[in-house]
Amino acid sequence: MSEIPYKIYLSESEIPTAWYNVRADMKNKPAPLLNPGTGEPLKAEDLMPIFCEELCKQEMNNTDQWIDIPGEILDFYKMYRPSPLVRAYCLEKALDTPAHIYYKFEGNNTSGSHKLNSAIAQAYYAKKQGLKGVTTETGAGQWGTALSMSTAYFGLDCQVYMVKVSYEQKPFRREVMRTYGATVTPSPSMTTNIGRKINEEFPGTDGSLGCAISEAVEAATSQEGYRYVLGSVLNQVLLHQSVIGLEAKAALDKYGIKADMIIGCAGGGSNLGGLISPFVGQMLRGEADYEIIAVEPASCPSLTRGSYVYDFCDTGRVCPLAKMYTLGSDFMPAPNHAGGLRYHGMSSIVSQLYDDGLIKARSVKQTDVFAAAEQFARVEGILPAPESSHAIKVAIDEALKCKETGEAKNIVFGLTGTGYFDLVAYQKYNDGVMDDYIPTDEDIAASLAKCPKL
Ligand SMILES: *Cc1c(COP(=O)(O)O)cnc(C)c1O
């Protein structure tokens, strides 16, 4: 076999031309979204006042295994894809492990993360529908950045509701969004009914992702020619992110490498779902077996400590109900939580795969995550995003286990992005003032008690 290079690049012609829809191969389909008022399953038409038409269809599509990637999206993908699959030779050497470690690096674009893969698709379908623009929320700003790059490309308006505390503390991402032409409003704002209500009830509030979602949905439905878009959790987002897994699998196949273990960080589940989809598809069809690990923060542990129930997707409770592993829509990770991945719930697809025992989950503490991030940065050169570093932490743990057992496992993990805008968190870690807060069982039980009773 030929020597495996540091970076396995696919050629431009090897970029996938269709997304893979893992739902088609799932025996147990992800549970349908429900109308919060009636408790009835939603149809694509019910979602159309909120989301773009084609995206509603993709959201409901449990049958087509492949969905063609339109040429206009492929053209954009060609500007920053295929992304490399990197053999972490230097990390392996530093760990003195017989394991072979590979990472799929999605940080090679200005938004700095995998979110662009879905943002460009969502902007394309909005444009194709003849819309004027889209609204969304952003927390730390990765999604807002990816979306503003995409709307700029297609000449659409982009209105971003940014959680107030991030708007004030993370001015640089805000400026990237404005540079790409987006309007960025701190949330809660005075521009929506829900924002005014929250400001009145909680004067001086820092805002939250759940509140920003509610504002963005209201802004979309109250303006002619606008729809709301979301950067994670939804089936359509996992579908678009399958490009990560398809490329990773093509690169491994090119060199005859069979992955033993696939690891990804899990916030809303989109990068993990995209990375693992083609591999899980093989498992579902009985063609291959893999050990798959979803990694989440110990401070926001929806898979490892949540319940698999119907819950609200947002704190404002304006969105449909989704069945997912959740900590309850009121759950707030502790304020000292720095490592991203703060969402209370989890993609319905990832939740169902986990419930069916096809994937495992593990939670890790944030100081351990930053230790792994620094170890990785110092030998592999890339400054990883804190979110991505959850996967690094478990990849290192598993490689060290291989050292004990002498197994030369092939470990593949998703390196979802870079950490240039997360240096305040790195600073805390370097100054030794970062700590680990882990919610108590009582904390979790209290927020789970507020899940809707159906
Ligand atoms: C948003 C984000 C994540 C988490 O989102 P998922 O939907 O779980 O993939 C992970 N890594 C980076 C760099 C992100 O920006």
Helix content: 40-55%
Stretches with pLDDT under 50, minimum 5 residues: none
Say which molecules are bound, naming each kind only once. Answer: pyridoxal-5'-phosphate
**Major β-sheet profile:** 7 strands, mixed
Radius of gyration from the alpha-carbon trace, in angstroms: 21 Å
- Helical segment tally? 18
Mean model confidence by pLDDT:
95
**Beta-strand residue percentage:** 15-25%
Second-tier CATH architecture of the largest domain:
3-Layer(aba) Sandwich
Distance between the termini: 57 Å
Tally the structural domains.
2
Q: What is the CATH C level class of the largest domain, in words?
A: Alpha Beta
General form:
globular
- Please give the order of strands in the largest beta sheet: 1-4-5-15-10-11-14
Structural class: alpha/beta
- The total strand number stands at 15
CATH topology of the largest domain: Rossmann fold
Describe this structure in words.
- The protein has 454 residues and is an alpha/beta fold.
- It folds into two domains: 7-14 and 71-112 and 236-448, Rossmann fold; 19-67 and 115-235, 3-Layer(aba) Sandwich (Rossmann fold).
- The protein has helices spanning 44-47, 53-60, 71-80, 89-95, 116-128, 142-154, 164-169, 171-179, 193-201, 209-221, 235-254, 270-284, 302-305, 348-355, 366-380, 386-405, 423-430, 441-448, and strands spanning 7-8, 18-20, 66-68, 85-87, 100-105, 133-138, 157-163, 183-187, 226-228, 261-265, 291-297, 307-312, 321-326, 360-364, 410-415.
- Strands 1-4-5-15-10-11-14 form a seven-stranded mixed beta sheet, with helices on both faces. Strands 8-7-6-9 form a four-stranded parallel beta sheet, with helices on both faces.
- Helix 4 packs across helix 15.
- The chain is globular.
- The protein starts with 6 loop residues before the first strand and ends in a 6-residue tail after the last helix.
- The structure holds pyridoxal-5'-phosphate.
- Pyridoxal-5'-phosphate (PLP) binds at residues 113, 115, 142, 232, 265-272, 340-341, 385, 387-388, 416-417.
